[in-house]
Design a protein that fits this description.
With 286 residues, the chain is mainly alpha-helical. It is built from 13 helices and 3 strands. The longest helix has 27 residues. It starts with 8 loop residues before the first strand and ends with a helix.
């Protein structure tokens, strides 16, 4: 007879201001008492820890209240529910997210994070604190475990992908990416310009190209639009305009006259004739 394993339980808790009896923070913990001790001894530059520091400075300690015990698989929805409820009744919560492992920052917090990221002094402070946290093996393992758990959740992955696409497709982000890439390519000491990096990128592109062009569906989807009459006319007009552009003509002339280009063409011609001689020898021997 198969035994049914009981579902693991975790807790949704609240931290309450001892002076005003107002709920100020909602969290999740398998061991709420230990989590409270972590809150009291691990200071960070956040709204929550600023409040905790003020309570401790007044000679008090935040009160721990267990709101609900839930299955380990259901805690994210439960935490979101309690945060939404206390915000609805007017509680001044110090939570920086909407709940569920800190993956849904509020619009106000997103703006604050973005502004802080632009400040060099704050970036240096955050960097130092992050390095300090990751220097602790136990804390490092915990943070990595949380990140892996979040990335393995299909819902969280879909949300992150949607947010990333929304950000990356804005004209401002595209312009910034283009400027950053151009600066890296023009820097002779950039890692991108190292021979190892170039070889690795070329090999990766080659593998991806072979994989894509060996797929009949990909070939049909890619080639079919290019064979239409409209596509051919558009490409013809584009090439005519391009070859009438003085800047492009000058650029091509400079490229063709460069020693690197001449050497590459020479090597390609030699390789071509070597291959032809090999084919001719094989035919004669057979």
């Amino acid at each position: 007879m198969r035994t049914i394993q009981p579902q693991k339980i975790t807790f949704i808790y609240a931290l309450v201001d001892p002076s005003t009896k107002e709920c100020r923070y909602i969290g999740k913990a398998n061991n709420p008492e230990r989590r409270l001790r972590d809150h009291l001894r691990t200071p960070f530059n956040t709204h929550k820890y600023a409040w905790i520091t003020s309570v401790l400075s007044a000679g008090h300690q935040p009160e721990l209240v267990i709101l609900e015990s839930v299955g380990i698989a259901d805690w994210q929805d439960a935490e979101r529910h309690w945060i939404a409820y206390f915000k609805y009744i007017g509680a001044n919560l110090t939570n920086s997210t909407l709940g569920g492992d800190g993956l849904n920052p509020t619009p106000e917090m997103s703006i604050k994070i973005a502004e802080a990221a632009k400040n060099p002094d704050k970036r240096a402070i955050l960097s130092a604190k992050a390095k300090l946290r990751y220097s602790d093996p136990v804390e490092r393992a915990r943070l990595i475990g949380m990140a892996k758990a979040a990335c393995s959740d299909p819902i969280n992955r879909a949300k992150s992908s949607a947010r990333m696409l929304l950000v990356m497709n804005t004209p401002e982000r595209k312009l910034l990416s283009a400027k950053t890439l151009a600066a890296q390519r023009s820097d002779p000491f950039s890692k991108m310009n190292s021979q190892e990096s170039k070889t690795k990128s070329a090999n990766k592109r080659s593998v991806n190209a072979l994989k894509n062009w060996s797929d009949p569906e990909y070939v049909a989807k890619t080639v079919a639009p290019l064979r239409t009459e409209e596509a051919r006319k558009a490409n013809s007009e584009r090439m005519k305009k391009l070859h009438q552009d003085p800047a492009y003509i000058e650029h091509r002339r400079a490229v063709c006259q460069s020693p690197e280009y001449k050497q590459r063409i020479s090597d390609a011609i030699k390789a071509h004739w070597v291959k032809r001689r090999e084919l001719k020898d094989n035919l004669m021997n057979n």
